[in-house]
Amino acid sequence: MIVVLGAAGMLGEAVVRRLVADGREVAALTHEQCDVAVPLHVRAAMQATLPRVVVNCAGVLPGRDRETMRAVNTEAPRTVAIEAAAVGARVIHVSTDCVFSGQQTDLLHTYTPPDAADDYGSTKASGEMVMQHVLNVRTSFIGARHGLVPWYRQQEQPVRGYARWYWSGQTAENVAGAIADRIFTEEHGLVHLATRLPMTKLHVLRLLHVAARGQEVVPDWAPYRNHALVPTRGWELPPLTMEDIERAI
After folding, report:
1. Confidence class for position 226, pLDDT limits 50, 70, 90
2. Is 134 helix (H, G, I), strand (E, B) or coil?
3. Burial class of residue 18 (count of CB atoms within 10 Å of its CB; 0-12, 13-18, 19+)
4. Of residues 111, 120, 152, 224, which has the active-site annotation?
5. Using CA of residue 40, residue 43, residue 46, residue 52, what is the dihedral sign?
6. E strand or H helix at 139, and its extent?
């Protein structure tokens, strides 16, 4: 049995779809079915399903208050790790490139110290657990439900794309597929699931412009930002393509 927490989210749904397609036995638990911020909910879910692996896709995105972010992004992963250990399960915990501020000019390796000062990045960094049965997967993704794609499709004027903002993510479907392919990994600690060659946000938006036939995208030379993770060996994603975006939207 594989338990997916946060199964109603964009990545959670994609992970469930891929695992089911692979013939895995999956318990897809949404926030309503298992609020990860409530320890008794997590304990009950683990004891009821007795999973072999728990994929924790639950998280609170920017825009919520710090207390809620801390409860879900920092404290809940600890609870999940403890309750999973109690039933002998391993944990794949999904983290983010936003643990970095974007100000660092060096390559962002797994050993690069996180430096996010905002509530989202700092609470996600604090939620990365150092335990023998926990693998923290830092990654980034785009998809049709929230973030860059729906924002772009709502625009009614030409869009400015950051020409100096670097990113190494993929679509939610491709990130989910990479996690599903490694679902029974024995690795622990921290890995970066990312593309080898980063691209700028300007490039991503121009691909989206063609795929979605939306507003024109023009360069914005705003200050440099770096969120391009260096992938861990064995966790490299293929470069984002037009076909990837067309499937995502």
Report:
1. very high
2. strand
3. buried
4. 120
5. positive
6. strand 134-139
Say if residues 137 and 107 touch (Cβ distance below 8 Å). no
* Tokens matching residue 169: 């993510």
Q: Residue 63: which pLDDT band, with cuts at 50, 70 and 90?
A: confident
Amino acid, res. 75: E
170: its two tokens: 């993929």
Domain definitions of the chain by residue range: 2-248
Q: Which two tokens stand for residue 21?
A: 């397609």
| Active site (annotated) includes residue 120 | yes
For 204, phi then psi, to 5°, come to -60, -45
Contact 211, 242 (CB under 8 A): yes
In angstroms, rounded to a whole number, what is the distance separating the alpha carbons of residues 50 and 22?
Answer: 20
**Whole-number Å distance between alpha carbons of 132 and 85:** 10
Asked if 195 and 169 touch (Cβ cutoff 8 Å), the reply is: yes
Please, how many CA atoms are within 13 Å of residue 236, restricted to the half-sphere of its CB? 8
pLDDT digits (tens, 9 = 90+) for 83-104: 999 999 999 999 999 999 999 9
Residue 157 pLDDT: 94
CATH number assigned to the domain covering 2-248: 3.40.50.720
Q: What angle do CA 188, 192, 196 make, to 5 degrees?
A: 140
